[in-house]
Design a protein that fits this description.
single chain; 3-stranded antiparallel β-sheet
């Protein structure tokens, strides 16, 4: 097989040794897509420049390019025409993964917000003794807890091969990434001007979590998946 094409925004691009390439080997539609294993160093496989990103700076991101990239038929993963199913199975788990990353960032941000407001003094008392601050922290904890439970539920349904797993994983990604970004944003606000400084980790959490609403399918696409499932089953 001779592969030609490109894909932007590949995490680990240029650093990873193995690439799974979804390519069209047949007609239109999902059944015309096959998956190939392509090793770094294969003639015709190259990479674009490392992207300069807002966050996720520990993960290199590049465009993957293929120009007359020859791969043996034995490098096909699965059978011809099954590439789309392989991709979708990977994406469902990937959405749980990204949602879980958001949970971790939000949990760290909440803990640091509690610690900071307990330490920071204003008008002769710690910030955390103000009821408005307590309410905000309580809302943040609630968003985090409900998001965590949604992600765990979707993961269980994916393991159980629930026919609605794709929609549930999409729901979990939207719920967790939207809510957890809000938690981090509130945490930064509670730090005041210090939250905007790199002396405090909360600004990094904000930068890193923002892309989770885009990765593994944008949250707008996640809502499309949920809506299509509703229309198909209603």
């Amino acid at each position: 097989y001779v592969l030609n094409g490109s894909k932007a925004f590949i995490s680990g691009g240029g650093e990873s040794d193995i690439y799974l390439i979804m390519t069209r080997t047949g007609g239109e539609g999902p059944k015309g897509i096959s998956c190939f294993i392509v090793e770094k160093g294969t003639p015709g496989l190259s990479f674009g420049a490392k992207e300069k990103k807002l966050g996720w700076n520990s993960s290199p991101t590049r465009t993957v390019l293929m120009e007359d990239c020859r791969v043996p038929a034995s490098n096909m993963l699965g059978k011809e025409g099954t590439g789309f199913n392989i991709a979708m199975n990977g994406l469902n788990g990937g959405r749980i993964n990204i949602a879980s990353c958001s949970l971790g960032g939000a949990d760290a941000a909440l803990r640091q917000a509690v610690a900071y407001t307990r330490e920071r003094q204003q008008f002769g008392k710690p910030l955390i003794e103000n009821q408005s601050v307590q309410f905000k922290l309580a809302d943040m904890a609630t968003l985090l807890c409900t998001s965590r439970e949604m992600v765990r539920f979707a993961a269980r349904q994916l393991d159980a091969k629930n026919p609605a797993a794709a929609a549930l994983c999409a729901m979990a990604k939207v719920q967790a990434t939207d809510n957890c970004f809000d938690v981090v944003n509130h945490a930064l606000q509670l730090h005041g001007g210090y939250g905007y400084l790199k002396d405090y980790k909360v600004e990094q959490y904000l930068r890193d979590l923002r892309v989770h609403q885009i990765l593994e399918g944008t949250n707008e696409v996640m809502r499309m998946i949920v809506a299509r499932n509703l229309m198909a089953t209603a």
